[in-house]
Amino acid sequence: MGTFKLNPPQRHFLDLASLTPEEAREIIDKGKALKQAVTGSGKGFVHPDRPLADKSLAMIFEKPSTRTRVSFEMAIHQLGGSAVILQGQDMQLGRGETVSDTAQVLSGFVDAIMLRANSHEALLEMAEHARVPVINALTNFSHPCQVMADILTFEEHLGAIGGRKIAWSGDGNNVATSWIHAAVLFDCELALACPKEFMPPAHVLDWARDKGGRVTLTHDPQEAVRNSDCVITDTWVSMGDTDAEQRLKILAPYQVNKQLMREARKEAIFMHCLPAHRGEEVTDEVIDGPQSVIWDEAENRLHIQKSILMWCFGK
Q1: Which residues are catalytic?
Q2: Do residues 168 and 224 lie in contact, with contact meaning Cβ atoms separated by under 8 Å?
Q3: How many whole angstroms separate alpha carbon 174 and alpha carbon 137?
């Protein structure tokens, strides 16, 4: 009788809370180095040592995407690998095949799976059954790739993030959840201003407090933003939300405008993961103003995705 061999454990990138501070720092620093290697080399640049040569990435999208799709596709290309794009509705997954079966099948075809999912539970199920690394490219619970790009952007403009104050104004959504995780990992202060109707998950706040994180919650945007080094917001109506009118009314006082930015430090920066609904969560004068770093933030998705891929493959 043959010997049954267990699959070796995979290095999944599912949530920042599953990383150690050392691993998180490694990914940020590698992203900086990879970006420096590309500077001046053109958008089609391929790293000369092709560290992920012959590696393949399946990219599954249950939600529309611009930045995530292009950044991951270019990231694997620049590292010497290849990607296959899979839309949820075009797969058997969209016709009732289970996530676990899909994970098993794809594990025989590709070297990693990136999933942009409606449900965080689907991501966890994919990771449980996949024999290759699985990457969270956004779920309804968290968006770790985005926040790692945000941290890279912050440090490019203002230096080390440890000990600095980050302010969030608006919906306590999936990006806010990943920022709570990041505040613990990178030892920065996070002040969240959210209405009581749209608070971050209580268990995430409890996790941060248990870890000694400096995370505070208020219903007053001015209080959260006061003396902050960075102000962040996100769209008030996300894909799948059916209560748009109610959301816009409740969140109106949390708009990031010129008056709110005055509460932050003079050198503070503004970030938004995009796409932005101008005139709702942020005004034109802020998003197009001198404190806005949104285009650097968007570009840094490319460099941090490369670093995440390298980390998942142990490179």
Answers
A1: 116, 143, 146, 234, 273, 301
A2: yes
A3: 11
* Rounded Cα gap, residues 57 and 262, in angstroms: 44
Return the closest-CA partner of residue 238 out of 195, 181, 276, 194: 276
Tally of domains in the chain: 2
Domain CATH code at residue 95? 3.40.50.1370
* pLDDT, tens digit (0-9, with 9 covering 90-100), for 17-65: 999 999 999 999 999 999 998 866 666 788 888 999 999 999 999 988 9
Whether 245 maps to a domain, the answer reads yes
Helix or strand or coil: residue 115? Answer: strand
Instruction: Confirm whether 214 is domain-assigned.
Output: yes
Q: Write out pLDDT tens, residues 234-278.
A: 999 876 677 889 999 999 999 999 999 999 999 999 999 999 999
The reply to whether 58 and 93 lie within a common domain is yes
Domain co-membership, 152 together with 127:
no
User: Whole-model pTM above 0.85?
Assistant: yes
Q: Judge whether 215 lies within some domain.
A: yes
**Domain that residue 43 falls in:** 16-142+301-312
CA gyration radius, the chain: 20
Provide the residue type at 99 as one letter.
Answer: V
Is residue 135 a contact partner of residue 113, using CB atoms and an 8 Å limit?
yes
